[in-house]
Fold:
Amino acid sequence: MKNKIKLSDSDKRLLIIFLAIVIIACSYFFIFSKEMSKAEDLEASNTTDSATVQQMEQMEAGLPTVRKNIKNLKAKEKKIIGNYPSDMKTEKVIETLQAIEDDNEGDFHISEITFLMNNPIVTATDADTAGDGSTTDTSSDTTTSTESTETAESTEAAEDTTDDSAPASQPVSGYYASIGIKYTASYLGLKDMINYVNEFKDRTTITNFSAIYDSSTGGVTGEMTLNMYYLMNTGKDYVPPIFDYMQKGTDNIFGGTAD
Structure:
């Protein structure tokens, strides 16, 4: 006959308490700890999101200032571009020099012009190989051109970039035309010419300058080099000059007076 184990009421209570502790421990390790881990992840995510929200709020608060700065920069860019033509051709150079003479009403006369076109602003080496040269003697109405195949190709390449079919994404590139002139002028006419260049609407500088006073005439003769700058691919169209009047021919090609 088997002996039955009898548990007292106190032992039963202890056993129930032990089982309750085991259940609570299992619940903690398998359920509660996982939920706590999720809560920690959520808290970390909330911290990151809060920082992001704060950053975006600061950006939103500064948005009016950013828009104002962008508007000001665009206005400055437009003003700068306005000081530079979209291209510079020999016809445009001649128009400018003619305007200089006309502005001085005969006190400044250009007797010879040398053209060195399409010089990149980037490097001096490129500038030495990217132009064409020609000489115009206005006193005899003759023009001498010294243009090589290489310079002609570089000129055509530069002019091709102004084609309307060119993509708008092309970068803005800067060039200048180096124009050498020989002149005769009065002292006042020379000063007026320099002032005209300084106030000219298109960006132009005098890079070389010489003047010799002629005591017999009271006039000044000399040479100077004008750099005329322009920007390509800015969206501006090249506007060719219109010459209202240009004297052609002569009554006597041998230089005398006509009968």
Remarks:
- The longest strand covers residues 219-232.
- The beta strands are 108-120, 133-137, 142-146, 173-185, 204-214, 219-232.
